[in-house]
Design brief:
By secondary structure, this protein is mainly α. 89% of the residues lie in helices and 0% in strands. The chain is elongated, with a radius of gyration of 14 Å. The N and C termini lie far apart (44 Å).
């Protein structure tokens, strides 16, 4: 049982790190260029940390947009529109 827990923690951590690199980081950089006075732009490290924690908790849901490019693009666009407002 402990082996499964360790494997699940490894899965969650790897998915969260990958989604941070492929989804959140490009969106935060795009927001920094578009709106430098936005709260997300001013506190980018905090936004990335919160995204990492949320992706860690919801790894089975984030795995699809992290791996499949079609869903990755739509998730990035929606994430950008949400953070831009």
């Amino acid at each position: 049982m402990l082996v499964y827990l360790v494997l699940y923690i490894l899965f969650c951590t790897s998915i969260a790190a990958t989604s941070l690199i492929t989804i959140a980081n490009p969106v935060i950089k795009r927001i920094k260029k578009a709106r430098p006075l936005n709260d997300v732009s001013q506190h980018a490290n905090l936004a990335l940390f919160i995204f990492f924690i949320m992706a860690l908790l919801m790894a089975p849901l984030v795995v699809v947009p992290t791996i499949i490019p079609k869903y990755n693009l739509s998730f990035k666009d929606t994430f950008y529109e949400t953070l831009e407002a």
